[in-house]
Write a structure and sequence with these properties.
Blueprint lengths: L1 H32 L2 H7 L8 H15 L7 H32 L1 H15 L11 E3 L6 H8 L5 E6 L15 E5 L5 H5 L8 E4 L14 E7 L5 H7 E12 L5 H7 L10 H9 L4 E14 L2 H11 L10 H14 L2 E13 L3
Organism: Massilimicrobiota timonensis
Keywords: Membrane, Transmembrane, Transmembrane helix
InterPro entries: 23S_rRNA_MeTrnsfrase_RlmA (IPR052939), SAM-dependent_MTases_sf (IPR029063)
């Protein structure tokens, strides 16, 4: 029995040292990432819930190493003893690591609770003035579109901004169609009631564009998705397709935190141009813009997401991100995110 106790203590010591090394590596990584939620998770009561895992692990280890005849009475007796030692050792180590982590990260845990409390008492203010700065964009999609427009054109603007972008081009063409896939078309149409040349429409139930073949002179895709085959179908020969979209690097600090498996591949001006060339379109011009946006308060970050992506403005749902942003604002007086936008002009040649 004394031998078993010594063996158990040695096993606990080795397991604890391994867990400490793993903990320190993880702690260093979490500090670099400003993952406040991880430090909050350390401040919890002890709850051992690894019995099933240890039963499986001990069974596999004992099955491989036991000298006793398989499934004999001796085998079962020693297995139960081995399993009990394994569970006791693991429980002791898990409790010891929890105590160690709380003492080792006491300051970070206290700071995390202060940040969490501040975030929980955050109250959105619709009248809050813009408190963020954007680097200047190196192209202007409005000016580029006007370069290709003529008064006789039939223009189609695809967007998800309730007609805001399209409203800049009222009376500029013979006819303009505003294609809004997610917004109440009647509400958007009311913005153009003084202009009979503008018609607000949406995609068909099958996701097709609501136009006959070769109906449109210019299609402007403003920060929304498109079907390249539908673009080819409805565009007149010699007509232009202008696509202005966000690239894969846009707001990567948020996207990669919550959707890491959707970041494979790259979507930029070159990738977009290649997809349009694959259907026989000629690339006329392309622009790429990488920049940054700096926020100086959680209020400004919330207001920005409310405008550009309302789903991301859910502070409770995305607490990990907002806590990280708040921490960086405290440390550096601002939180910075990457912006990435590109524009491609293509022409239908046949």
């Amino acid at each position: 029995m004394e031998y078993l106790m010594i063996l158990l203590l040695i096993f606990i010591a080795v397991l604890f040292l391994m867990q400490v090394v793993f903990f320190e590596i993880t702690k260093s990584k979490m500090e670099k990432m400003n993952n406040i939620n991880w430090f909050l998770s350390l401040d919890k009561p002890f709850n051992y819930n690894r019995v099933g895992y240890m039963v499986f692990l001990c069974f596999i280890c004992y099955l491989v190493s036991s000298p006793a005849p398989l499934f004999s009475l001796e085998w079962f007796i020693y297995f139960v003893l081995f399993l009990a030692m394994g569970i006791v050792a693991d429980a002791v180590v898990q409790y010891a690591i929890l105590i160690y982590s709380k003492k080792r990260c006491r300051r970070q845990i206290e700071d995390a609770h202060l940040l969490q409390n501040e975030l929980q008492h955050f109250t959105p203010n619709a009248d809050f003035e813009k408190d963020y700065t954007l680097t200047p964009q190196n192209y202007d999609e409005t000016s580029i579109l006007r370069q290709y427009m003529t008064p006789e054109d039939h223009l189609a603007v695809m967007s998800v901004d309730s007609g805001k972008f399209a409203s800049q081009f009222k009376d500029d063409t013979e006819a303009m169609f505003v294609v809004e896939p997610y917004t109440d078309t009647q509400r958007v149409q009311s913005q153009f009631e003084d202009d009979s040349s503008v018609k607000v429409t949406t995609l068909t139930p099958t996701g097709k564009m609501p136009f006959k073949d070769e109906k449109i002179d210019i299609i402007m895709c403003q920060e929304c998705n498109y079907d390249k085959n539908e673009i080819q179908r409805v565009l007149k020969k010699g007509g232009y397709f202008i696509v202005n979209q966000h690239g894969t690097e846009n707001l990567k600090e948020f996207v990669r935190l919550y959707m890491p498996f959707q970041m494979k591949g790259k979507w930029d001006a070159e990738s977009c141009a290649q997809t349009l060339e694959s259907i026989g379109m000629r690339i006329v011009d392309k622009f790429e813009d990488y920049g940054t946006i700096r926020f100086h308060s959680i209020q400004s970050l919330y207001q920005y997401f409310t405008k550009v992506s309302p789903d991301f403005a859910n502070v409770n749902r995305y607490q990990v991100f907002y806590l990280q942003a708040l921490k960086e604002m405290k440390d550096h007086s601002y939180f910075e995110m990457t912006t990435h936008q590109f524009l491609v002009v293509a022409q239908k040649t046949f």
